[in-house]
Input
Amino acid sequence: MQKQPLLGMTLSELQSVVKYLGMPSFSAKQIASWLYDKKVDSIDEMTNLSLKHREMLKEEYEVGAYSPVDAMRSSDGTVKYLYQVGEGHYVEAVYIPDDDRATLCVSSQVGCKMSCKFCMTGKQGFSANLTANQILNQIHSLPERDKLTNVVMMGMGEPLDNLDEVLKALEIMTATYGYAWSPKRVTLSTVGLRKGLKRFIEESDCHLAVSLHSPLPLQRRELMPAEKAFSITEIVDLLHDYDFSKQRRLSFEYIVFKGVNDTVPYAKELLKLLRGLDCRVNLIRFHAIPGVDLEGADMDTMIRFRDYLTSHGLFTTIRASRGEDIFAACGMLSTAKQGAENKN
Ligand SMILES: C[S@@+](CC[C@H](N)C(=O)[O-])C[C@H]1O[C@@H](n2cnc3c(N)ncnc32)[C@H](O)[C@@H]1O
Ligand code: SF4
Output
């Protein structure tokens, strides 16, 4: 029988497990502490549970932690890890150390349904949703996990398309029984889905990043088919209903494509679209992917674009591009791995 993983269970799920096994109710908190505070890899290490209870737990459950199967190191210290998530499926988690912070970019799905034109993960198509266990294991089994200061849900997949499992993982990261991180350390990035956006804003306090890439609905639709189902103007209308002026940060991601969305008229449209929202814009360098007729704008153009927006009152940064020698684009390592397996 396949054992169920405990890693990735919320406190209320652990309470159901201990109730089902006839263990004292306080053992749920003890198990949570072993999983999320002491970060053990086996039930045998949970030594404040009686031997009898550990044996009972082991019959049907396991911690469910597993190490990455591959890693690629960049000359700038960025490491891209590959985790196996089921038969022939792999996802990436990218560790990005910086002067005063260390960020992990976490995946939420194997592949993605959204088919954005510029994205390697989109080209893979969709294979599976990750469970909360598979999302959290990217952190739990990371060799550098004790150095982490931030997590961004910006790896493979669209997190709002797998919201139940993503919300469980975010709860565990931020709850006192879990990692007890401030929600300010966690950012979820999304194209914006009608079904999930409102729920995420209301059920989580984590930062929100919306992938924008064009202020013009017709152009955005060309780049990102998800625009057809929930347009950027509807997304912005919804965001106006919430307060992002305090602890919680709202940002918009904007890949600057050469000759596509990199001139003053686009900057003006952006200012118009985002007027009145407490937000910032992050300009992103495009990582070229094979077979796509898009190119990244040069740095001078990006700086001019940033300065125009900032000087008109919209705070804008240029995201440092890290791990370019290993990165190319999110989804490349897992695509290569899946491709190699298919050939075997
Ligand atoms: C891979 S997505 C995952 C999160 C979510 N699905 C989204 O689109 O926001 C994270 C960010 O990477 C960006 N991205 C995707 N492909 C890229 C590429 N080839 N170069 C630069 N950024 C890319 C996306 O637009 C998004 O802002
Ligand atoms: S950019 Fe995000 S939503 Fe679009 S295909 Fe890639 S992972 Fe999916």
In short: The chain has two domains: 4-62, 73-343.
